[in-house]
Amino acid sequence: MIGLVSLKRYVAAIVLSVSSFAPGSSYAVQPDEVLADPVLEQRARALSEDLRCLVCRNENIDESNADLARDLRLLVRERLVAGDSDTEVIDFVVDRYGEYVLLRPTASGANWMLWAAGPLMLAMALGLAFAYLRGRARAPRTAEVGLSPEEQARLKQIIDE
User: How far is residue 27 CA from its own chain's centroid?
Assistant: First the structure.
């Protein structure tokens, strides 16, 4: 019995240790920011997932502890309480902070070049590699020339020394 109790404690300790490292959703949303209406709060969380913290760069505003992220969270909630639709809230934030605030930028306007640049560069690299390899395959082969009689004599002299 004593062995079984210590085994259970050992297993419980391992489970607690591993679960503390398990990824979970950690939000920086403060209790005073949470809206009383659960539907509006859910909409605010969904919108916040797509908005970038301008200080932290690749974190959404719900995960960031930066003051600017808090201001953006409050702004989103304020606009929702005012009756704006999700699209109107996003448009308002983009108009105020620029399209950089979106974690998933649109593929329109000047951004289409950024979306197309990767595949275009890959196509260009493949085309250049194909042209280079094809040019090498078509190049005339040169016959290997042996050593001249003077070079052979000099080589024999070096070897004999």
Answer: 20
